[in-house]
Amino acid sequence: MNVTTTAAAQHTNTVAPLAIRGLSVAYQKKPVLRNVSFEVKEGELIGVIGPNGAGKSTLMKAALGLIPSIGGEVLVYGKSYKQQRKLIGYVPQRESVDWDFPTNALDVVLMGRYGHLGWFRRPGAKEKAIAVECLSKVGMADYADRQISQLSGGQQQRVFLARALAQDAKLYFMDEPFAGVDAATEKAIITLLQELKLQGKTVIVVHHDLATVQDYFDSVLLLNVELQAYGPTAQTFTQEHLQRTYGGRLAFLDRNLQSPPPSGKGE
Amino acid sequence: MSEFWILLTGALVASCCGILGVFLVLRKMAMIGDAISHSVMPGIVIAFLLSGSRDSLLMMFAALVFGLLTTFLIQMFQNSGIQSDASIGVVFTALFAIGVVLVSLYARQVHLDQDAILYGEIAYVHWNIWELGGMNMGPKAVWLLGFTLLVIVAVITIFYKQFKLCAFDPALAAAIGIPAAAFHYLLMGLVSMATVSSFESVGAILVVGLLIIPASTAYLLTDRLGVMIMLSVAAGVASTFIGYYAAALLDASIAGCMVCAAGVLFAAALLFSPTQGIVVKKLRLRRLAS
Fold it and tell me: Domain residues for B129?
């Protein structure tokens, strides 16, 4: 069963899924993001990388309107994100919620449907069927009734991904989905990302592991308060750009990027 | 008849508090409930001074205003960089102190004594009767609490999924367009209402016990939110009954015994909960070891 519904099908034009212009964010007068502008292409997997405190999560939260920006504009398929919420899926960092909350895996995935239900409708049989299907896509169907605190870290992350799938969006924001997961989950996430890409969806992923950037992402965005570089991974994930983003702090640079990365590896 | 009215009043307080307490506990805001229950006091006194009576809608409204003011001030102080527990402490003690000063200044005019506000007087609940066209409608507190419970049940039922998501994952709630801040203030408004309706019967201090203890008991006994709400109400109502009869037996404070009973139930759940109980966990370990 395909969960693609009408809300997502309306937009088949060439407007960029996400266009950010001059976005700036400050916490208590300290700039966290300064004048960031970029535009993503539809159907791409985009990795956002940068050192700790570079503003990667902030970029995501500001784009989603979760925190106030002090300047700039965010357009989702040409309109303000407020008008396009049903087109956006969001996977927050796993640590951002309390996994002791009294609920089970299926219920968490159902929460992904709340945006489609409007103010007063409650999730019914149709929503449950969608949620079960999303759980099985991440290999978690057997754990539907499991209390969420009894799941491993990787399984919890997969429940979060299933919830994002249930949102049935066209543009996904994922905040460090690979952080602290086991190998099976990492593989499940990567399969899922590829599948989303095949369906023409756009996925923006905050990522930490530089060793896998070339394997996972079509485009890469290097961030350190300001935008350092953005473009196709083959041309952008270079020693020069990484040095500029991370400063001299990175042993990875010397070992892995002596020669220019082979092109097309990100496909 | 007095026994019936006291038990009904207690059960209504326990139900109001039990439902809201679940959301306070899950959002880790138990102490905000404490803060609100104290800082509505100046509101109550001001309303009393203005209207000269204890059962006006004005009092409910004033308490609501002060409850939301408390929530707002705590949030504001936190945003300006003060530790969250410190900002809660600052706001509620300051507002409560204003209430204490007001009571001591005008106590003779308003017949509102500090003991009643702090500890309640549930034993006298049946003396304060609502008369409608000469007809005895029963205690005013019961009507007030019944109305409050109705509002709470209606609001929580209608917006169940919003409250649930705001409690579990406020970031996702905001991302899909649920006005998380509005629901935060709505919840705090309900807590203020519950507090002011309850304070006459159980007092400002003990109402916190009924907000937090039964909800914490329920938290130990289930892993479903809906079940947790029902268990919380059940634990609260059970505490009222146990507390009332214990008080009769000991000739002690009724409200005090009710909250003590809630504490005993909590201790029992802590020890014997089938999933999280200390005793059960020990037994399970021993079985694994042998």
Answer: 2-289
